[in-house]
Amino acid sequence: MKRVPFIKSDLGMMLILSVLIGIVVGAIDTVFGRILIYLTDFRSEHSLLLIPFLAPAGMIFTYYFLKYGKNSSKGMGLVFKAGHQEEDNIPKRLVPFVILGTWVTHLFGGSAGREGVAIQVGASISLAASSFMKRVDASQFIIMGMAAGFAGLFETPIAASFFALEVLTVGALRYDALLPTLFAAFAADVTSKWLGLEKFSVAIENAPSIDAGIFIKLIILGIIFGLCGGAFSSALNKMKNLFVEKLPNPVRRVGIVGGLLSLLLLLLFSGRYAGLGTNLIDASFSASTINPYDWLLKAVLTILTVAAGFQGGEVTPLFAIGSTLGVVLSSFFGLPTAFVAALGYVSVFGSATNTFLAPIMIGAEVFGFENLPYFFIVSSVAFVFNGNKSIYGNQKVAAILQ
Question: Is position 206 within any domain?
Fold first, then answer.
């Protein structure tokens, strides 16, 4: 597909469509998110009854997804290919399938995220809307939809805008899509807020003043978080390839790995590492108990869940991995626990997704804009030290960074 240059005379129509897309995607995010919260709470109350059925539930869903979902089973890879203009279409049936699949994953305890649904739904709906504007590059609508999906679910519209603009090709911001992306993200954010979707936010009020000693500590933390995110991405991609090689049948793969996951999830503190990881995030910022190995076990179980083919995503577990690792590191660095947990929350996500601006803005929108300098320093270092790895296999890297 040949890229069509942005035409400023189309701006008015583009912005109208971006707002409408944001409203629709924000509403879908809300329904999806609120039901997911209910299912998570229900599973937490009945872990011993539900987690053992992760494998059969995953097998049934995977069978029907492959049979009736056409190429929508390619998931995020399909979105990235459409964003790179290597695919012309994202099937509309992707929307109900990825929503239902993620509900199944979380009801039965898979350690996965939720952003995959939001981004895929947003991209699918937005791309469908691109038919109203023949002269505009359809990939702009992919970016717009990704931002709307992320913003509607996490209610961080500035971070969502930067994430969508930079994640397709690292080192090449899509400024041609900047304004409509911003409009779509804020429309989705306002919609999900108005419909009552919860937002996670914590006020970090005890951040230390930056001096030479604190600056050095922030640099070292950035290196650690960057290596952590890079290692997560590398391990995830290698595990996906290993599973495909050893278990080429997707239904059987989900069944075998799902059975192993059920056993591990129950043996390891009866479901402590099941689902999104919001329990670990909450514990990180409420002075509750965080074990030194929480971040590692959450990482391993998330890698197994996603690599096996369960629907969901990785972002919220990455938030949990980063925040719990931050809690562990805080005592070694003599820094406030919640402060270092916040640094880990944003920079492990950034290093694992190979993004730079998005994690900085997530930190500002979730933990307060007054802490932006800390997120800038740590995320900058983490971005450099992640080894150019990414959880998104179809992400491209600009020549200047290669």
Answer: no
Tokens 């040949």 correspond to 2
Last residue of a domain, one of 140, 159, 194: 194
- Three-state DSSP string of 76-112: HHHHHHHHCCCCCCCCCCHHHHHHHHHHHHHHCCCCC
Question: What is the band of 2 on the pLDDT scale with cuts at 50, 70, 90?
Answer: very low
Q: Treating both helix axes as pointing N-terminal to C-terminal, what angle do 294-308 and 212-246 enclose, rounded to 10 degrees?
A: 30
Of 2, 15, 21, which is closest to residue 123 (Cα–Cα)?
21
- Contact assessment for residue 401 and residue 241, using Cβ atoms and an 8 Å cutoff: no
- Residue range 119-148: mean pLDDT, rounded: 90
Instruction: Judge whether 329 lies within some domain.
Output: yes
Predicted pLDDT of residue 6: 47
| C-alpha neighbours within 13 Å on the C-beta side of residue 6 | 16
Looking at the structure, tell me whether residues 223 and 164 fall in a common domain.
no
Q: Are 124 and 98 in contact (CB under 8 A)?
A: no
**Residue ranges making up the domain that contains 151:** 8-194
Nearest to 379 by CA among 338, 328, 344, 336: 344
Give the chain's domain count: 2
Q: What's 351's domain CATH number?
A: 1.10.3080.10
* In a shared domain, residues 93 and 188: yes
Whether 8 has a pLDDT exceeding 90, the answer reads no
Reading the block at residue 326, the tokens are: 């931050």
Helices 315-333, 294-308: axis angle to 10 degrees equals 160
Dist CA 27 CA 122 (whole Å):
11
pLDDT given for residue 4 in this prediction: 46
- Tell me, yes or no, whether 226 and 299 share the same domain: yes
Residue 300 inside a domain? The answer is yes
Say if residue 172 is in the same domain as residue 232.
Answer: no
Average pLDDT over residues 255-283: 97
* Tokens matching residue 248: 């080429």
Q: 9: pLDDT confidence band, cut at 50, 70 and 90?
A: low
Rounded to two decimals, what is the model's pTM?
Answer: 0.95
281 lies in some domain: yes
Q: Which of 46-60, 66-80, 232-246 shows the lowest per-residue confidence on average (mean pLDDT)?
A: 66-80
Average pLDDT, the chain: 94
